[in-house]
Amino acid sequence: MSGATLARRVAFETLRGVHESDAYANLLLPREIRAAGLTPADAGLATELTYGTLRRQGTYDAIIAAAADRSPDDIDPPVLDALRLGVHQLLSTRVASHAAVNESVALARDAAGQGAAGFVNAVLRRVSRETPGDWMQRITAAARSDDERLGLQYAHPVWVIRALRRALAAEGRADELDDLLAADNASPQVTMAALPGLAEIPADAQRTPYSPFGFRSGGGAPEALISRAGGRIRVQDEGSQLAALALVAAAPVRQGERWLDLCAGPGGKTAILAAEALERGAHLEANEPSAVRARLVRDSVAGIPVEVPVSETDGRERAAATPGAYDRILVDAPCTGLGALRRRPEARWRKSPADIPELTDLQLGLASAAVGALRPGGILAYVTCSPHLAETAAITAELRRAFGDEVTELDARAIVSSASRTPLDLPPQTDGSGRAQLWPHRHGTDAMSITLLQRR
Q1: 40-55 vs 77-92: helix crossing angle, rounded to 10
Q2: Burial (Cβ within 10 Å: 0-12, 13-18, ≥19) of residue 426
Q3: What are the pLDDT digits (tens) for 276-329?
Q4: Catalytic residue at 263?
Q5: CB-side exposure of 364: number of CA atoms within 13 Å?
Q6: Nearest to 116, CA basis, from 160, 79, 167
Q7: Which of 197, 339, 436, 451 satisfies CB 3.0 to 4.6 Å to 279 for a cystine?
């Protein structure tokens, strides 16, 4: 079996895991690549095929529906994944048409038999007869609204488009929507962090524009650099680095401060806070209710010469059990992840508006409990990797309403900017809050939302 064929099979198996078992592509794909023993070049091909197919799934399903004259819901799931993979290769890569068709037919045959192979062969040959532009014109012409047309063009569900438009409009920047949707479909550059005080940015690296400890590797696979650094250099989005840094930069750190990372998994921000705590004489604790993710948190701080106790409790109970105990608390709350669609391509198809109420209840519960766990003068950083206003502005407004004069909202935009290496374009929020919102198209980061509240 050739390397390219093996790469396609790895991509197919990852798609099956995502759709059949709700697996996360960013966790499953590396395991499949290792298990298959792919070369770096073939691993790159498998990654592009997997992520590209998942990102544009909605658009490809519309094309498959037109070419097959049936709804994707009426196609056996393994056959549908083989078709999606084939359409991606035909319309969005330089893979030769005959290879895209033949390999997808083979995948369908192995998964569902000869009849499925014939069906996939017929559909993909119809797809291959028209250009990508022809197909886009054909499916968008059938759209029932401008938002549906935009959703087909950029492969986003309509409800996500509307949520992103409202979040941009909250900054008076709704005209940036097309740029944002395009950025969600671009492969993000690998960004790394050298833990402050514990590692140096390599001399041949390209520094990132904002984080003082962020950089991009000067070449080669980052795994070797990470391994040599003993966990003190790691892959981490620059927005996540700034979110952790904002909590530290919000006010001068006093010796002996007690910090808590309440929703710590998988531990990237925990590692930065641990390094900062070590350097500034503070003490960090972490909490993560999932045992699997708590193990990741412990691994993330293993290379830092400081003890970070990690509890495995519901964050609301953990904070409520320690009233008035902490000087700084990070609540990096569970969210829809709409700000990280570049890295989690399946999230846009997996989440729905029905997920919002349960998530916002949890987010408000966690943030409220964290305020109660602050000492007078203590600071809460409420962070989400989603720009959805229900998960950001609405939670901030509810906290201010519930705690009234007990809390003061700090100017997160000014604090993040003061910690940045270069000026950040962070326009004011139309609701008058101090919330800072990062964006993929404007800053090259995940769309992190950062709110800072100080208890009086």
Answers
A1: 110
A2: buried
A3: 999 999 999 999 999 999 999 999 999 999 999 999 999 999 999 999 999 999
A4: no
A5: 19
A6: 79
A7: 197
Read off φ and ψ for residue 451, nearest 5 degrees: -120, 135
| Token digits of residue 210 | 């904002």
Minimal CA–CA distance to 164: which of 176, 152, 153? Answer: 176
Residues 335-393 have pLDDT tens digits of 999 999 999 999 999 999 999 999 999 999 999 999 999 999 999 999 999 999 999 99
Q: What b/e string do you get for 291-301 counting C-beta neighbours within 10 Å, with b at 16 or more?
A: eebbbbbbebb
Beta carbons of 246 and 211 less than 8 angstroms apart: no
Q: How far is CA 87 from CA 4, 25, 53, in A?
A: 16, 19, 8
Choose among 94, 26, 20, 98: nearest CA to 55.
26
Q: For 226-371, list the strands marked E by DSSP.
A: 233-235, 258-261, 283-287, 310-311, 326-332
Structure tokens at 19: 């759709």
Residue 219 has pLDDT above 70, yes or no: no
Task: Check residue 231 and give its pLDDT.
Answer: 85
Tell me: cis bond preceding 266? Omega within 30 of 0 counts. Answer: yes
- Considering the candidates 385, 424, 447, 450, report the single residue annotated as catalytic: 385
| C-alpha to C-alpha distance for 428 and 417, rounded to whole angstroms | 13
Strands 283-287 and 374-384: unpaired
Q: What is the pLDDT of residue 220?
A: 61
